[in-house]
Amino acid sequence: MIINTKLNNLGFIFFLIIFCLLFTLELSAQSSTLLKLWYNQPAKQWVEALPIGNGRLGAMVFGIPSKEEIQLNESTVWAGQPNRNDNPDAKEALPKVRQLIFEDKYKEAQDLVNQKFISRNSQGMPYQVVGNLELSFPGHENFTNYYRELNIETAVTSTHYDVDGVTYKREVFASFPDQVIILRITASKTGKINLTASMNRPAPVDISTEGDDKLIMSGVTGDCDSVKGAVKFQVQVKIATEGGSVSANNNSIIVNNADVATLYISIASSFKNYNDISANADERANSYLQKALKKSYEQALQDHIADYQHYFNRVSIDLGITDAVKNPTDVRIEQFAKSNDPQLVALCFQFGRYLLISSSRPGGQPANLQGIWNDQLYPPWDSKYTVNINTEMNYWPSEITNLSEMNEPLIQMIRELSQTGKQTAKDMYGAKGWVLHHNTDIWRMNGPIDGSFWGMWPMGGAWLCQHLWEKYEFNGDREYLQSVYPVMKSAVEFYLSFLVEEPQHKWLVVCPSVSPENSPADHPESSISAGTTMDNQLLFDLFTKTIKSAEILKTDKEFVNKINDALKRLPPMQIGQWGQLQEWMHDWDSQTDKHRHVSHLYGLFPSNQISPYRTPELFSAAKTSLIARGDESTGWSMGWKVNLWARLLDGDHALKLIADQLTPAIQHDGKQKGGTYPNMFDAHPPFQIDGNFGFTAGVAEMLLQSNDGAIFVLPALPDVWKNGSVNGLRARGGFEIESLEWKNGAISKLVIKSNLGGNCRIRSYTKLKAEDTTPLKFAKGENQNPFFHTPKIKEPIISNKATLKNVKLKNTFIYDIETKAGEKSTFSEQ
Ligand code: FUC
Fold this sequence. Notes:
This protein is α+β, with helices and mostly antiparallel strands. The chain is 32% helix and 23% strand. The longest helix has 33 residues, at 2-34. The protein is globular and about 80 Å long.
């Protein structure tokens, strides 16, 4: 009996161990399958191929068994060469243009800007494809058991399939530590790898081989407008094999009967900086390659994963898992709107983080319109930097999703633009400081391009400067602030000398300008105007943030007085006749305007001038405007709207936009619309990466906001995300939300780490208690933590025709917790 019980106990323990083991295995197998994009067929088109990148190098991997195609990019391979595009005729024509605008002669003003302001030479240079590496595998036309994936937990893409009883596997990754792309081909039987490697580019290039195992492609970038292409680049591909033989033949490399083949792809250009392209591309490419060859494949892979995960692993998210995860990614996108698949949202959120880590690394170029992935010589909009929304959107997720370092290339570009833009300010407007219009490129051009309707917007610098400040708001690094303050100050200097008094209200306005790319129903043929709402909001932010910076740095008292004087004279926001937030200085908004840009809502997101608690009338007006604008639009526009609905504290509507965004971009009739491609790239259409980043930022804003005087936890949770968790998001003031869990929509666990100390004000729909049982103090008055000071904006002017819709807000609890740097506080539902 006793023995039996003992045996029973042992049996039970054994059972328990096996059960636990199986359960953990099951869990880890599951978690490792969740952060993957995977498919049961090779890519048939570019938007099905899978992107990898290390900030400088990018590749799109097709995973085709018989003819693998690896499309290659390098972030400095741009057409043209150092050049300027300022039009000096502007200076003389400026007073006339202003006069025409103030006399309501918008068409004439626009025509004159087209003649005298818009650049006569460069409209911006295109970012260009490097070329393709092609690997042909004879006899691999008929394959079975096909599978390919992009694992965004490891940043490795792999393909496997069977041919004649042999399983072939390819693994590709772009290593930041080793600065090469590595492709490894293995087979389940020895001596089975046979391939021919060749390279091409849709433009003339020199292709050669060196020794038996090295393929080289050299070229120069293309001409555009009147600028001659002069960036030299070189690709070197070295094929290392185990077993079999390697030989060079006719500008290709042939591998016969190998056990393993490892390809090291090294790319470099002659680009040193926007003003200097004198580097030796060949030497650079070779030196990256030689360094990389010293490491074993396993070591290189391990170093790559460790480097990538250092950033990626900071944030994890769980919005729930359903059976939908059993389907391949393309099927899930097809079915998203009709299925319940919250994990696809989590995957797409993390995919945005993956893309940012892969396309924007310290020391490199910022993510452009397509991040770093482009297969064309002259891509749509040149794949350059459109700064009237797109470039900024690329960086919206950077701070909140804990990837602050990835901002560095953007911040460096802004520093450079503040240098080049001084010449533009002086030559075009006789103004001080620096200016940037609606676009720039690797040469840091600052002049207006494309035509007045789009390009006459001297606000690019004002918007980009918000990112300089935001980095400080999240990290509190005073030395960093000191280093970017001169850039902000110089931007302010431009506006102080450029602003002009408009005749009707005597406000100081930017003129000429546009509300990005939109024209009012009053004069649809011309977008040009003065004192648009977005311009005023941007200037309000630039001015107040520069004043704050000067105060923190204890400098420039007199200059601050000057800014304050101008600040008082900026136009207030206005609520128009149908209760909308006016987009223009005049009440021109049409209720049927569905334009993709929602520029005037900048004040709601990304800015914090409009608040449900501080400015209820403007909040209501912003909502009315957004409802009128509608939901479906271009990819990035929907991405912006996810963030806007999150700021309107409407999680369900934000989720509706997510569903619109996660709709297949390619419809059954072959036509394209705003949505998502099979490889999860966002579609304007065509592919633009901004929508991916807007999406990621939007999901984060639904779960956490820190722009309105407090850390608002779960501000816009959709009803269907009943249970979930997110770990590692960041808030202003150096707070890190180490853990946030919710059950049935209420917060069940919240752990906040304070990195800088100071008052931690939490706003929540859930009544909270502290884990250490100290009673929580309800917040009173303004948050004493300076990172949470909210802007004091002017009272809006409200049209006497307007009826404002009353926006109902849910009750919230607000607590103040005094924190010390390094301390953690834990809360749960009371
Ligand atoms: C802006 C947008 C377009 C497009 C382009 C790259 O001009 O208005 O929709 O996204 O940038």
